[in-house]
Write a structure and sequence with these properties.
- The structure holds two protein chains of two kinds.
- Chain A has a six-stranded antiparallel sheet. In chain A, strands 10-8-7-9-11-12 form a six-stranded antiparallel sheet.
- Chain A is α+β, with helices and mostly antiparallel strands.
- Chain A folds into two domains: about 100 residues, no CATH class; about 120 residues, no CATH class.
- In chain A, β5 and β6 form a beta hairpin.
- Chain A starts with a strand and ends in a 5-residue tail after the last helix.
- Chain B is an all-alpha fold.
- Chain B has 21 helices and two strands.
- A two-stranded antiparallel sheet of chain B has the order 1-2.
- In chain B, α19 packs across α20.
- Chain B is globular and about 85 Å long.
- Classes of the chains: A alpha+beta, B mainly alpha.
- The interface between A and B is medium-sized, with 34 and 33 residues.
């Protein structure tokens, strides 16, 4: 049985496992007894591209089958500043797991900058989790947040761009019918503030993100990077979701009342 | 003395059964699709049949007990017609048979509809609708066949003559009692089916969607098959039995009222008795024609699909107006135009109620949109606005029925309020007019669960997006027709119950004659022959007026019954759903690999839990519906029973409209939000409307529809027990 290394985003952790990504995602979401559930996001990592000080032997020692020959499901290697520690070159596919354990694998692709002056909404997912309204496009936002010369910054960031629909160009009167965000008036205020004050580039919409990401609000995809590099994981189109990834998509659209 | 015209009635009945068989065979020739589709269809079929088998076992025990009681009353105490035990059994048997055929067809049709939808939308529509028509035609066919057979048998036993109309009164009042068999069967089908379907739906959703985050119609949810079975049990067998009973009840009550109204002119009396049967028979032929008009283009959208169904209903309605005019002219009844006017009034009343239901429950109109809008402030306001909309929605159906009653009464009575006999006959025949094309309207109703199950099958079998889009369109259409059908069922139940109330008095006359009382002493030296006593004489004789406390007591008890009945059925759903939740949790825990899709859940156990829950929970409300009228009759006599029936009809009708429309509106408000309003799927508004929909589930599918049966069954019990009431009432 092979060993895998994962960077979990929720919660931030480095985890070794004998489960392949699909199985690990299912296990991670619903557990072994199926008495729990919860959305999960994680990256598969290339063990060979991890830093030299990474304790590879610890994986080999601890990540071994159980006495009944069932695979070891998880060995936590780190639960603090894990993202910061992982080099971007070691990051492979991103896996999005729904509440009930359906797994969608996203591959890296090149990000093409959008033209125009529309506004953006980003949900930071790791290591901090505010929701930010801004005029920066994804790569500029990444540079802005990871600029360690600034007092408020992080060395690496993982975030997703969220849909704003008509609010992206008309925050005052834009239609919000299909946007499931809470406190939409506050969101409008933040966007209007950015639009009206050129000196103000970002506004915090929500200080800390609770709960789970509503996947249908993903605009174009997920971004992970530092001040120099950015990796982009495009989210499938609506048509692809309804055809190629329908089983995952249906599950992603199911809401819970917890 | 059965004239040639009568034979149109059995011919109509047999035509219905013939075409039902033809549509069934046509449907069976279609393929069920791939192995997965077949397997899912087989699960649903087995579950549905297991439920029916269990229900029929309990119904059999109930029928045996009641038959023994009826036999005792008829042959030992001699306070009841000797035919009642047999008529009771046949009514129940034919109703049960209609439910069995309807369910069987529906469960065979779902996968075939999904498979046909892979090729075209019209193909799916055709199979689903014609399979629904099997239910519609079986209901009207068996109903009219039962009526025809009893009419022929009793005619041989009590020969009709051109000089004396009393035998016709005996025949029609005896036939009326078979309605109790149909009512009792309908009660079990509606209450049991309603509890089953919502226990599976709510229970499955609570643990599947809310706890485990599993989408609807996902094969990993152990309650999924039970949910699909529930659609058939509630909306096919339950609705079929409900309308079977209204259909037969309206024809039989009208016949009984006709026999009384035309007592002095036996030839006209005969014609008045067979008029509702003839209209029903011709209605069957027109329904069959209407079925062939249902088709849609491949690119049809939701509106065009609805148009395809509406077109066939409209054509049949226009044709029945013309045909009933011809029938009334051929019969040469007194005030034929007025009676025809009453028929048209009934039809229009049905259409108005259907349209009002659509207005209050469809997301295309303001009331439902206002509920969706209230979700912006959370679930509490969704519940409040849903209750408000439901309450407001009672106005149009009640006013429509009120206007229908007064117009049909006045038309048939020649605008003479004192012509009570003709007036009440008019109300009865208005109900017959409303239900004349039941074969078709019930087809649009039974189509709903077939399309819904087809969607479930497509989802579980992983069919492509194009197929899912088509089955979704068919399903969505089914939701609209189901809401309209519920309004129609409630409206017809109200008119039928009113006709039954009038027929009750006819039964009293027979009951008094049976115990040897052939004169009626009205006091002040006024004594009249029982045979010649009018409805008003009976009201005076029994002191049925609002100053009599026994009447008022009855009214209060009747009003209370509707609420108690709803409370019992609502709580029953809650308890049965809880058992379902426990079972689904157990399976997730104990069967490894369910959530990974590697192991198959134990679907049969969930079906068994819903079945058992439904059977246990339906006993108390059913027993109350039967025992309370008997108790009221024995303790408070005729005034108490009349009060009870008026109280239950008044509150039951309004409460049923309120509950069905609130539930329908909550359901569609949720769908409206899901379409991308007020935040769409996953928003706080969505969660609020999901809560509203869950609350509304037992409203619209259990308690609301069950009230139709309650008001009719209590009338039927009163009618059948009238002999006991007049012989043994204490006060």
């Amino acid at each position: 049985m092979a060993n895998y290394l994962y960077l979990s985003i929720t919660p931030e952790a480095l985890i070794a496992s004998m489960l392949a990504p699909e199985e690990f995602g299912n296990y991670f979401a619903v557990g072994t007894k199926k008495r729990t559930r919860g959305q999960a996001m994680f990256f598969e990592l290339d063990i060979d591209k991890m830093p030299d000080d990474f304790p590879k032997n610890e994986i080999e020692n601890k990540c071994v089958p159980h006495a009944d020959n069932t695979p070891k499901r998880s060995v936590y290697l780190s639960i603090y500043r894990a993202l910061e520690y992982v080099p971007l070159k070691a990051i492979k596919n991103l896996f999005l797991v729904t509440d009930d354990g359906r797994v969608l694998s996203l591959e890296q692709d090149e990000y093409k900058e959008e033209d125009g002056n529309s506004l953006h909404l980003y949900q930071e997912l790791c290591p901090v989790t505010p929701r930010i309204a801004t005029r920066y496009n994804p790569s500029n936002f990444m540079k802005y947040v990871t600029n360690t010369s600034q007092p408020v910054s992080v060395p690496k960031l993982f975030f997703v761009e969220l849909k704003l629909d008509e609010l992206a160009v008309d925050p005052l009167k834009g239609n919000v019918n299909d946007l499931p965000y809470p406190n939409i008036d506050h969101l409008r205020d933040c966007l209007i503030g950015i639009q009206e004050k050129p000196a103000k580039a970002t506004k915090t919409v929500i200080r800390t993100f609770y709960g789970e990401l509503n996947f249908r609000t993903c605009k174009n995809g997920f971004f992970i990077g530092d001040k120099e590099n950015i990796l982009y994981y495009p989210f499938p189109s609506f048509e692809e979701l309804n055809t190629k990834y329908y089983v995952w998509w249906r599950s992603a659209l199911t809401i819970g009342l917890r | 003395m059965i004239s040639g015209l009568f034979w149109i009635v059995p011919v109509g009945a047999i035509s219905a059964l013939f075409f039902a068989y033809y549509f069934f065979r046509q449907m069976m020739k279609e393929s069920e699709g791939e192995d997965t589709m077949k397997k899912i269809a087989q699960y649903v079929r087995e579950g549905a049949m297991a439920y029916l088998k269990q229900q029929y076992k309990i119904v059999l025990v109930f029928f045996l007990i009641i038959t023994v009681i009826f036999s005792f009353l008829a042959y030992v105490l001699e306070v009841q017609n000797g035919w009642v035990p047999f008529a009771f059994i046949t009514g129940g048997f034919f109703s049960g048979l209609a439910g069995f055929f309807g369910m069987k067809t529906a469960t065979y049709a779902a996968a075939r509809t999904a498979n046909a939808a892979r090729k075209s939308l019209n193909g799916g529509l055709r199979i689903a609708f014609r399979s629904g028509a099997v239910m519609g035609l079986v209901v009207v066919g068996l109903g009219l066949l039962d009526i025809s057979l009893w009419f022929i048998i009793l005619n041989a036993w009590y020969p009709l003559s051109l000089t004396d109309g009393h035998n016709m009164v005996i025949i029609t009042t005896t036939m009326l009692t078979f309605g109790m068999g149909a009512s009792a069967q309908a009660l079990f089908a509606r209450v049991g089916g309603g509890i089953f379907t919502k226990a599976a739906d709510v229970g499955g959703d609570l643990v599947g969607k809310v706890e485990a985050g599993i989408p609807e119609d996902d094969p990993r949810n152990p309650a999924t098959i039970a949910d699909n079975v529930g659609d058939n049990v509630g909306d096919v067998a339950g609705m079929g039995a409900d309308l079977y009973e209204s259909y037969c009840g309206s024809i039989l009550a009208t016949a009984a009222l006709g026999a009384s109204a035309f007592l002095e002119t036996p030839l006209l009396q005969f014609k008045a008795v067979i008029a509702p049967m003839l209209i029903a028979a011709v209605g069957i032929i027109l329904s069959i024609i209407g079925v062939f008009f249902v088709r849609a283009s491949e690119q049809a959208d939701q509106k065009q699909l609805l148009k395809a169904l509406s077109r066939s209903i409209n054509i049949s309605s226009v044709l029945i107006v013309i045909a009933s005019f011809i029938i009334i002219q051929v019969l040469e009844l007194d005030n034929g135009i007025g009676i025809w006017g009453a028929i048209v009034v009934g039809l229009i009343t049905g259409i108005v109620i259907g349209k009002a239901t659509e207005y209050y429950t469809s997301a295309s109109y303001k009331p439902t949109q206002s509920i969706a809008e209230s979700s912006k402030t959370g679930p509490a306001t969704v519940i409040i606005s849903g209750l408000g909309v439901g309450m407001m929605s009672t106005a149009v159906p009640v006013i429509a029925v009120v206007i229908g009653i007064i117009l049909s009464y006045l038309f048939a009575a020649g605008f003479d309020f004192n012509n009570t006999g003709f007036g009440l006959y008019g109300i009865g025949i208005a109900a017959v007019g409303m239900l004349s094309t039941l074969g078709l309207t019930l087809a649009t109703d039974a189509y709903g669960p077939i399309a819904d199950n087809a969607g479930g099958n497509a989802e579980m079998s992983g069919l492509g997006p194009e197929v899912r889009k088509r089955t979704d369109a068919l399903d969505s259409l089914g939701n609209t027709t189901a809401a309209t059908g519920k309004g129609f069922a409630i409206g017809s139940a109200a008119l039928t119950a009113l006709a039954l109330l009038a027929s009750y008095v006819e039964e009293l006359k027979i009951g008094l004659l049976r115990i040897g009382q052939d004169i009626m002493d009205l006091g002040n030296g006024i004594v009249i022959e029982m045979q010649k006593a009018t409805l008003k004489d009976f009201m005076n004789y029994y002191d049925v007026n609002l100053m009599n406390p026994k009447v008022l007591i009855g009214v209060f008890i009747g009003a209370m019954m509707s609420f108690i009945f709803c409370g019992l059925t609502m709580n029953a759903v809650g308890r049965a759903a809880q058992k379902m939740v426990d079972e689904v949790r157990r399976q997730f825990r104990e069967i490894p690999g369910i959530l990974e899709g590697k192991a198959e859940p134990d679907y049969a156990e969930c079906v068994a839990i819903s079945t058992k829950g439904a059977q246990v929970e339906m006993v108390l409300p059913s027993a109350l519906a039967v025992l309370v009228p008997v108790f009221m009759g024995i303790v408070f006599g005729v005034p108490g029973v009349m009060g009870l029936l008026v109280g239950s009809l008044g509150t039951g009708f309004v409460l049923a409209v309120f509950m069905a429309n609130s539930g329908g509106a909550w359901d569609n408000a949720k769908k409206y939000v899901e379409e991308g309003h007020y935040g769409g799927k996953g928003s706080a508004s969505h969660k609020a409307t999901v809560i509203g929909d869950t609350v509304g589930d037992p409203f619209k599918d259990t308690s609301g529809p069950s009230l139709n049966i309650l008001i009719k069954l209590m009338s039927m019990v009163a009618i059948v027990m009238s002999g006991l009431t007049v012989a043994f009432s204490i006060l």
